[in-house]
Amino acid sequence: MPRIALVTCRPGPEVSVDRDLPVLLEALREAGAEADSVPWDDDAVDWGGYDLAVLRSTWDYSWRAAEFLAWAQRCSEATRLANPAEVVRWNADKRYLGDLAGAGVPVVPTRYLAPGDTAALPDDTEYVVKPTSGAGARFAARYTPDEHETAVRQLARMHAEGFTAMVQPYVRGIDVTGERALQFYGGRLLHASRKGAVLTPGTPYDEHKVAHPGLEPWTPTPAELAVAERALAAVPQAPELLYARVDLVDGEDGQPRVMELELVEPNLFLALHTGSVPGVVGAILAAAGS
Description:
Elements: E1 3-8, H1 20-30, E2 34-39, E3 52-57, H2 65-78, E4 80-82, H3 85-91, H4 96-102, E5 111-113, E6 127-131, E7 141-143, H5 148-160, E8 165-169, H6 173-177, E9 179-185, E10 188-195, E11 216-217, H7 222-233, E12 243-250, E13 256-262, H8 277-287
Parallel strand pairs: 1-2, 1-3, 3-4
Antiparallel strand pairs: 5-8, 6-7, 6-8, 9-10, 9-12, 10-11, 12-13
């Protein structure tokens, strides 16, 4: 009977509820595993007592990044962590988009502004400002050129808190074809979903956003699958990934581009894709050596 930890975080006002977690716990137990839901920052946990620790919903990690990454390293030294700690470290900072672009993967064009950098913002197009370490559209906002002063204030706030900012053109394809999320589990496409635009004009960066508006099932096109597979193949050192979510939007040319590659704690949307539960459970049990 394998012992499996589904790693989550403690409840809080800024933390979403992981509705997939109880479903997976029950399914794993029915399959014969001993499965627990465990907060990543619980110092009383003996991680070495588990055969596998699966990062499930550590949705507070982005504002505790250094602490979280140190924990991931310790956990990986005590047991098998999925995804691996080196992948988590690389993927926890969205500057990985530069690595993907360097490998020839089509991504949304991105510039980075670290604390101390001059705030050079677009003056001829709508754009998005968000942190390189973030989740659920936290500290993200959409601006027009005439909102320059507001964007500069956001950058100052982010830099004061130690965040590096990323600046991207607002990809108008989101308003037409939405954002598509392709989920992979156990090395295979599990399912795909589509959602509407998260960032609406005039919404303050520090206001809560609905992270997955209008979510619906989606059948990925061959072009979308090809871009997603190129992104996964470009992950450094080609590690074995238990899970991955590739978020795609259409560029100005109508072709899919990577908006985000989520290898840390992606929402699986199992309430929308109930038929995917057995596939997730089977992949977790295989990773645990069952």
